[in-house]
């Protein structure tokens, strides 16, 4: 039994046995969450073809092991956006985490602190950012481009005052994707879940059927976001600016030309445009376009330490984790720690068996595409 941050009792379920994979954790979480909440966490846009493609394309990448490389003590340590990290992963921004567990973002931030990885605070957090800063975790702050420019400036100020190390602007959400599970469920957040100005915004009228969150985002998201706004953003903050949601190599090249500090190859976990390519399929062309002018991170579909190594082998600088963290969050802070522990063990195992004593060696691994991944990215052999 745990307590909520207001002191009221809150039962925290525990997995029936020690999980061996993220899939084990997901199967357990599915039995603990209300069906409509599970659909909100796991669902994607449209018929969820992009959501599935993320997984299929990752699974079709095979790494060619090196041998005789002395992997007695492999190291997963790296640097992400100038900050040391114990693994090449950060937690992606995910809204309203108290929907999953009463401690929500606090539980995730504390687990990230212990694991030595960054935590990206969602612009739609259900826990104020100053409370998350008090955990001592390395924080990045997500931005959405709101129609209220003053609100964007306010979030920037809050991020700087909280000691965040970077600003991550999601550029792939001019409006929320058409998520059929949420529409069919008429999904609505429980009262009191949202924090700050967002709480009032959820009550705003909208015209879209189904999900109240979709109706809400219609009222606050600015679809006029363009490259001039990126220049404005860079002038407003001293923090590194990261663009999240890049898939086209031409946009990646523009981002580098505009001097952004990093990009994240992302299709929003298949939750925005159903019909987009997988992120792992888009990665090689993006890397070619950027040409080492800024770090390139990636998210969407990652479920194992082997998946993480696959991304590193193809040239990514790190991976942002989404749904696996929410699966673990069903068990609170301990559940998130279990998820990260499983992923680290899998990553160490994959590095050992492929001859990688450190993550620099991963970039030298050869990779092959199994039959079924069409078209095969030209950068892979």
How is the secondary structure organized here?
Blueprint: E1 2-3, E2 9-10, H1 22-32, H2 35-42, H3 49-59, E3 61-64, E4 78-80, E5 83-85, E6 89-91, H4 104-115, E7 119-121, H5 129-133, E8 139-143, H6 149-161, E9 167-170, H7 180-185, H8 197-201, H9 212-220, H10 227-236, E10 241-246, H11 249-257, E11 262-265, H12 279-290, E12 296-298, H13 305-314, E13 319-321, H14 323-329, H15 332-353, H16 359-362, E14 366-369
Parallel strand pairs: 6-13, 7-8, 8-9, 9-10, 10-11, 11-12
Antiparallel strand pairs: 1-2, 3-14, 4-5
Question: Summary?
Answer:
Helices cover 40% and strands 13% of the residues.
Question: What would you note in describing this structure?
Answer:
- With 381 residues, this protein is of the alpha/beta class.
- It has a single domain (2-369), classed as Alpha-Beta Barrel (TIM Barrel), CATH 3.20.20.70.
- Helix content is 40%, strand content 13%.
- It is built from 16 helices and 14 strands.
- The protein has helices at 22-32, 35-42, 49-59, 104-115, 129-133, 149-161, 180-185, 197-201, 212-220, 227-236, 249-257, 279-290, 305-314, 323-329, 332-353, 359-362, and strands at residues 2-3, 9-10, 61-64, 78-80, 83-85, 89-91, 119-121, 139-143, 167-170, 241-246, 262-265, 296-298, 319-321, 366-369.
- The strands form five sheets. The protein has a six-stranded parallel sheet. A two-stranded antiparallel ribbon has the order 1-2. The protein has a two-stranded antiparallel ribbon with strand order 3-14.
- The longest helix is centred in the C-terminal third of the chain and has 22 residues, at 332-353.
- It is globular and about 60 Å long.
- Mean pLDDT is 90; it is low at 1-9, 199-208 and 372-381.
């Amino acid at each position: 039994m745990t307590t909520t941050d207001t002191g009221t009792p809150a039962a925290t379920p525990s997995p029936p046995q020690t999980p061996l994979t993220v899939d084990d954790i997901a199967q357990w979480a599915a039995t603990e969450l209300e069906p409509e909440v599970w659909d909100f966490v796991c669902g994607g846009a449209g018929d969820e073809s992009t959501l599935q493609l993320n997984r299929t394309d990752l699974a079709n990448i095979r790494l060619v092991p090196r041998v005789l490389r002395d992997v007695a003590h492999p190291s997963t340590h790296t640097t992400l956006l100038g900050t040391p990290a114990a693994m090449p992963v950060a937690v992606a921004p995910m809204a309203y985490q108290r929907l999953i567990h009463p401690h929500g973002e606090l539980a995730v931030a504390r687990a990230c602190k212990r694991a030595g990885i960054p935590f990206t605070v969602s612009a739609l957090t259900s826990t104020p950012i100053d409370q998350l800063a008090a955990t001592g975790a390395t924080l990045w702050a997500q931005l959405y481009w709101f129609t209220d420019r003053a609100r964007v400036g306010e979030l920037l100020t809050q991020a700087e005052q909280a000691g965040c190390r970077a600003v991550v602007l999601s550029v792939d959400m001019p409006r929320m994707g058409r998520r059929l599970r949420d529409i069919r469920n008429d999904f609505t957040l429980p009262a009191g879940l949202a924090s700050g100005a967002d709480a009032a915004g959820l009550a705003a009228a909208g015209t879209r059927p189904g999900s109240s969150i979709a109706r809400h985002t219609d009222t606050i998201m600015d679809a006029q976001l363009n490259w001039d706004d990126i220049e404005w953003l860079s002038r407003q903050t001293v923090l590194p600016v990261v663009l999240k949601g890049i898939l086209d190599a031409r946009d990646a090249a523009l981002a580098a030309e505009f001097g952004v500090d990093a990009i994240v190859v992302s299709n929003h976990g298949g939750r925005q445009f159903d019909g987009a390519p997988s992120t792992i399929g888009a990665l090689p062309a993006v890397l070619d376009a950027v040409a080492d002018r800024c770090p390139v991170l990636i998210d969407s579909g990652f479920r194992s330490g082997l998946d993480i190594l696959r991304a590193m082998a193809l040239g990514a600088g790190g991976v942002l984790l989404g749904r696996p963290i929410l699966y673990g969050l069903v068990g609170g802070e301990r559940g998130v720690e279990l998820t990260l522990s499983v992923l680290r063990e899998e990553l160490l195992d994959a590095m050992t068996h492929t001859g990688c004593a450190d993550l620099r060696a991963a970039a030298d691994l050869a990779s092959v595409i199994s039959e079924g991944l069409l078209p095969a990215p030209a950068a892979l052999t």
